[in-house]
């Protein structure tokens, strides 16, 4: 049930002591080895010795993606390159990629955390893990891979894409665990159905999906179509990669590995902490990273702290599944809209496939939102009236959920581009 019970179930008081000790070491490491941090500390008259308790965390300055970009590529590293054994990089979809480095010890910690994550998500050493996260600069593939090997499971390093071959391998090798983005899991299910392969012919029983926002309804859809149990895994390159947090079998929030990361949830505007249960931006401080320590890193990811303890026995803080990113959030006519809200409505209503695209534009001074969504095969061959009714119902439901007017365009099945990694859900023409 646990990979490392001593740490995963550590009494809270002991965990806090460990966190403080590690925080102080991290602050020192950053101050003495990274000019960026030294300058940032000095600008507010802070010295490493000022961090005397965990409550002093708020005294530390924030770090942003822009800071990493300004120090591109290796300026934030706290060790000489001779100690860096691995380099990864974020996809760079929102600008210049950020580059991250790992010492041998960092890789070791990452493998340990990923082994814990896999076990927490329901994997054992007897599993055959089909790892369809991309291998390469993206942290997903190798992050999961090292954890799976550490656990002692049999890992198939198939990477993303080549979907028909994925299904053949899944069937022939008897894969029991699938790891990939939720959007790719859905695509796999779709191609499986096209190939006439039913979930009953597979040994698949569990999926560990993350790297992009997905809704609770999407979980249920994937579980149904693949006949598996699916859990949510979270992480980001700047902090380590996958393995910052994961759901346990309770599927009620993601446990954050508190002996390696300190988390806060803040109001992104006032930058003050918000109470548990309230949505805000997740801020992460690494506690053991050597090559790239991050202090109060503004993830831009939106979640809330879950109060109370989990019946699985882990004492780690939990965060709720992610609503989206502050920079994914669309402001349409002054109203905040997340793609995940649209996804939830579409899945709840039925009649459509969970493949959708939000197109935001501006006509004159007015923002417009169009939701393109695929109709399910059966409905598509139905009468025009059925389609008109569905469109009307979708418009009503989306407008009442989002609070703005929406144009719904129903499109033929399989016309919206499928992703092998992170799905693109929004086209915002206003920026062009
Ligand atoms: O996506 C690391 C990862 C790989 C996580 C495999 C999970 C599984 P990046 O490419 O740096 O790293 O992207 C990080 O992806 O800040 C979030 O916005 C988003 N993200 C990651 N996991 C989740 C999740 C990897 N479970 C960015 N739910 C993060 C929602 C997620 N968003």
TrEMBL record:
Keywords: Ligase, Nucleotide-binding. Pathway: Aromatic compound metabolism; phenylacetate degradation. Residues 334-430 form the AMP-dependent ligase C-terminal domain. The keyword Ribosomal protein does not apply. InterPro entries: Adenylate-forming_Reductase (IPR051414), AMP-bd_C_sf (IPR045851), AMP-dep_Lig_C (IPR028154), AMP-dep_synth/lig_dom (IPR000873), ANL_N_sf (IPR042099), PA_CoA_ligase (IPR011880). It is an enzyme of class 6 (ligase). Pfam families: AMP-binding, AMP-binding_C_2. One of its GO terms (biological process) is phenylacetate catabolic process. Its EC number is 6.2.1.30. SUPFAM superfamilies: Acetyl-CoA synthetase-like. The keyword Repeat does not apply. Residues 84-285 form the AMP-dependent synthetase/ligase domain. GO terms for molecular function: nucleotide binding; phenylacetate-CoA ligase activity. It catalyses: 2-phenylacetate + ATP + CoA = phenylacetyl-CoA + AMP + diphosphate. Catalyzes the activation of phenylacetic acid (PA) to phenylacetyl-CoA (PA-CoA). Belongs to the phenylacetyl-CoA ligase family. Monomer. This is Phenylacetate-coenzyme A ligase. It comes from Moorella mulderi DSM 14980. The lineage of its organism: Bacteria, Bacillati, Bacillota, Clostridia, Neomoorellales.
């Amino acid at each position: 049930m646990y990979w490392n019970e001593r740490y995963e179930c550590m009494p809270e008081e002991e965990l806090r002591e460990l966190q403080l000790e590690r925080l102080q070491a991290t602050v020192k490491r950053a101050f003495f080895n990274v000019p960026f941090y030294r300058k940032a500390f000095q600008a507010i008259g802070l010295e490493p010795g000022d961090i005397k308790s965990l409550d002093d965390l708020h005294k530390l300055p924030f770090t942003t993606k822009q800071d990493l970009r300004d120090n591109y590529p290796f300026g934030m590293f706290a060790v000489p390159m001779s100690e860096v054994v691995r380099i990864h990089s974020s996809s760079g979809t929102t600008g210049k990629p950020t580059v991250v480095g790992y010492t041998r010890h960092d890789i070791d910690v990452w493998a340990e955390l990923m082994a814990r994550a896999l076990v927490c998500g329901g994997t054992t050493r007897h599993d055959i893990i089909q790892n369809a996260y991309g291998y390469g600069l993206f942290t997903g593939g190798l992050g999961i891979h090292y954890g799976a090997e550490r656990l002692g499971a049999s890992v198939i390093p198939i990477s993303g894409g080549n979907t028909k071959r994925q299904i053949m391998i899944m069937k022939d090798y008897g894969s029991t665990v699938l790891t990939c983005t939720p959007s790719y899991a859905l695509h796999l299910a779709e191609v499986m159905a096209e190939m006439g392969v039913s979930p009953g012919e597979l040994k698949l029983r569990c999926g560990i999906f993350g790297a992009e926002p997905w809704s609770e309804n999407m979980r249920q859809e994937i579980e149904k179509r693949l006949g598996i149990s699916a859990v949510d895994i979270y992480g980001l390159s700047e902090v380590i990669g996958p393995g910052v947090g994961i759901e346990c079998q309770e599927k009620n929030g993601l446990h954050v590995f508190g002996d390696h990361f300190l988390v806060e949830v803040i109001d992104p505007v006032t930058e003050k902490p918000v109470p548990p249960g309230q949505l805000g931006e997740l801020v992460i401080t690494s506690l053991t990273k050597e090559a790239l320590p991050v202090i109060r890193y503004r993830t831009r990811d939106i979640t809330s702290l879950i109060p109370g303890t989990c019946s699985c026995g882990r004492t780690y803080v939990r965060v709720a599944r992610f609503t989206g990113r502050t920079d994914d959030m669309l402001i349409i006519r002054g109203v905040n809209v997340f793609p995940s809200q649209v996804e939830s409505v579409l899945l709840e209503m039925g009649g459509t496939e969970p493949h959708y695209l939000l197109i935001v534009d501006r006509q004159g001074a007015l923002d417009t939102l169009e939701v393109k969504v695929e109709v399910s095969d059966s409905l598509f061959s139905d009468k025009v009236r059925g389609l008109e009714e569905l469109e009307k119902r979708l418009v009503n439901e989306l407008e009442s959920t989002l609070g703005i007017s929406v144009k719904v365009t129903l499109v033929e099945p399989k016309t919206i581009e499928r992703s092998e990694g992170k799905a693109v859900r929004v086209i915002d023409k206003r920026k062009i």
